[in-house]
Amino acid sequence: MRAEALKGHLDGLLLAALEDGPRHGYAVKEALRDATDGKLDLPTGTVYPALHRLEQAGLISGSWVVVAGRRRRTYELTEDGRRSLKGARDNWQEFAAVVSTALRGAPWPATS
Amino acid sequence: MACHELIEGHLQALARSLPASVVEELRDGLIESYEDQLERLGDAEAAAHAAIADFGDADTVTAAFVRASPGRGIAVRLLLAGPVVGLSWAAALIAGHWWTWPISPPLRLAVGLVLGLAVLMLIVAVRERHHYRTVRLAALAGATGVAVLDTTLLATVVMLPAGPSVLLVPALAASVARVLLVVRAVPEMISDP
C-alpha cells in the first residue's frame, strides 16, 4: 500500500497499534505490519516523528526503559488518545460506508 | 549485540541534525530492525542495508522530526496570530495618539528592532526543513522577542497617562494571551524530547 494513501489516517493507525498496551516505535511499526499481513509496512523512521507529534498532542505518553542495555522509549495511550481512537474509528466507518456505496456503481440521484 | 558500521554511520548522520535523546530512540529502533533482518537474512552486511532501507534516509526522517517539532508549532501559531495582534495594537495606538507619548526615539527604535528580529526568527523556524536545533533556537528567540514586545507594550500602557479606550481592550487581551502562549510553550521547546 502506498504511503500517500494513508494521509489523514496515520494517527488513527498508530493509536490503534497502542490500544493493547505500551509499545516502542519499532514494535508499533511491526504491529501494524503484522495486523495487515504485511500490506502496511511503514518506513521505521517515519513512525517515530509521528509518535512524537501524538505525544505533544497529549494522545500518547512516552517513558524510557532499559532493555538489553539500550535505552528504549515506549508509548501508551492516554485517555484523550482512547477518545481520539474511537473518533477515528467512527469517522473511518462512516467514510468507508459512503465511498463503498459510491464505488458500487449505484445510480446517482438525478439533478434538475 | 555489536552493531554494524553502516548502522552507526546512519545514526551519525541523524545525530548531526537531531537532539541526542531522539537519536537514542532511533538507535534502539534501528538496531532492533537490524537484529530482525540479521535473523532473517543471516548476513550482517545485507541485514544492515535492509534495515537502513526500511528505516528511510536521514534527510526524510530529519525533515519529519522538524515538521513535528514544538518550536515549529509555536512559530506557526505566533506568525498566524501576528497580524491580528498587530492590527489590534495599531488601532489602539492610533486612537490614543501614540506619537504624542513621551517615549524616547531610541526606545521606539529598540521596539521596532525587537519586532523585526522576532518575526525574522519565527520565519526561519517555520521555513527551516533539516536542522532541528536551528528551528528550536530560532523559535525560542522569536517567541521570546514576541513576549518581550508584548510585555513592553503592556507596561507602556499601564505607565503612560493614556486615556482609557475601548480599543485597548482587544489589544491588551491579545498581548496577554500571546505572552501566556509563549510561557506555556517555552518549557516544551527547551526540553530535550
How would you portray this structure in words?
The complex is a heterodimer of chains A (112) and B (193). Chain A is of the alpha+beta class and 112 residues long. Chain A has a single domain (3-100), classed as Winged helix-like DNA-binding domain superfamily/Winged helix DNA-binding domain (Arc Repressor Mutant, subunit A). Chain A contains 4 helices and 3 strands, in the order H-E-H-H-E-E-H. Chain A has a 3-stranded antiparallel beta sheet with strand order 1-3-2. The radius of gyration of chain A is 17 Å and the shape is elongated. The mean pLDDT of chain A is 88. Chain B has 2 domains: 5-64, no CATH class; 69-190, no CATH class. The A-B interface holds A 24-27, 41, 43-50, 52-53, 56, 67, 70-73 and B 22, 24-33, 54-57, 60-61, 64-65, 67-68, 70, 73, 188, 193.
Sketch the major β-sheet of chain A: 3 strands, antiparallel
- Compute the separation of the termini of chain A in Å: 40 Å
Structural class of chain B: mainly alpha
Strand % of chain B is under 5%
CATH superfamily of chain A: Winged helix-like DNA-binding domain superfamily/Winged helix DNA-binding domain
Distance between the termini of chain B: 26 Å
The CATH C-level class name of chain A: Mainly Alpha
Largest sheet of chain B, described in full?
none
InterPro entries (chain A): Metal_resp_DNA-bind_regulator, Tscrpt_reg_PadR_N, WH-like_DNA-bd_sf, WH_DNA-bd_sf
Domain Transcription regulator PadR N-terminal (chain A): 14-86
Protein name (chain A): PadR family transcriptional regulator
Pfam families (chain A): PadR
Can you describe this structure in just a few lines?
The complex is a heterodimer of chains A (112) and B (193). Chain A is α+β, with helices and mostly antiparallel strands.
